[in-house]
């Protein structure tokens, strides 16, 4: 199970809308100057992901929840997104090369296969995302934001 903490944005009728922060892979190693990931992370927008998760217990806005998703569903979605266009690219390039015996035909077949694989992945993903095993679940719930109060007055320090 892959786990991540999220913040509750709203809760209505047994469904919580939670926001997960995008974490960059940078700032965790010493090679910041020559890191390609760091450059790419600076180019893209630093946004949040908001998702709906079923929750039977009421949640307060700002409350932290731990979400979990099965590794198999995450790996399955990664295979669908990355391997389907790649497989289409290679299959159609080989088919066009075999049929027409030119490199231009192979390139055209590769382009068609890559786009076709992308469209297949795009068409399958909504159906697969409805599966119960592919849905994130709430594993644990943190305290509500107003449930804990720290008293820093001088009277509290004398006790």
Topology:
Layout: E1 2-12, E2 15-21, H1 36-43, E3 48-54, E4 64-69, H2 71-100, H3 103-129, E5 137-141, H4 154-158
Antiparallel strand pairs: 1-2, 1-4, 2-3, 4-5
Helix pairs in contact: 2-3
Explain what you see.
Keywords: Membrane, Transmembrane, Transmembrane helix. Pfam families: RseC_MucC. InterPro entries: RseC, SigmaE_reg_RseC_MucC. The protein has 159 residues and is of the alpha+beta class. It has one domain. The chain contains four helices and five strands; from the N terminus they run ββαββααβα. It has helices at 36-43, 71-100, 103-129, 154-158, and strands at 2-12, 15-21, 48-54, 64-69, 137-141. The chain has a five-stranded antiparallel beta sheet. A hairpin with a 2-residue loop joins β1 (2-12) and β2 (15-21). α2 packs antiparallel against α3 (103-129). The radius of gyration is 23 Å and the shape is elongated. The model has no long low-confidence stretch (mean pLDDT 84).
In N-to-C order, the SSE pattern is EEHEEHHEH
Q: How many distinct domains?
A: 1
Distance between the termini: 44 Å
Characterize the main sheet.
Answer: 5 strands, antiparallel
Question: Cα-atom Rg, whole angstroms?
Answer: 23 Å
